[in-house]
Design a protein that fits this description.
Largest sheet: 5 strands, antiparallel
Shape: elongated
Helix content: 25-40%
Distance between the termini: 16 Å
């Protein structure tokens, strides 16, 4: 398992809201593999959602929940700190080190340096 996937799973365990269907949740349309972002429930179909597809912003997408896979929202620093705080051996110094390593530009796990990813992985794995 890769480190980002492991960290993401630990964050979702600590905060299931990450994968709730609501505004900003990222999904993958099953039939096409296209990634999209939930905008709002559809007014046309009560079990469908209006989607924004960054790769094709001029097309309106309305998809039923059965036609997409939930990816969730990006993992933020707060999610990682929450996952860390759920551990039995919580250490405030480690928390501070993590906050100091995290790049707030983009505030997204996928935007962090390899060093930061390795650090987070090691503290959540221990």
């Amino acid at each position: 398992m890769n480190k980002i996937k492991f960290i993401r799973e630990k964050c979702i365990e600590a905060n299931p809201e990450i994968v709730e269907l609501k505004f900003g949740c990222e999904v993958k349309i099953i039939r096409s593999g296209v990634r999209a972002i939930l905008i709002s429930p559809s007014e046309i179909d009560l079990v469908a959602w209006n989607l924004f597809v960054p790769s094709n912003p001029f097309v309106d997408y309305i998809e039923n929940e059965a036609t997409f896979k939930i990816i969730g929202r990006p993992i933020r620093l707060a999610d990682v700190l929450l996952a860390y705080s759920f551990r039995e051996r919580f250490n405030a110094t480690t928390w501070g080190s993590l906050a100091g390593k995290w790049s707030l530009i983009g505030n997204n796990l996928n935007n962090q340096s390899k060093e930061t990813i390795d650090f987070i992985y090691d503290i959540l794995k221990a």
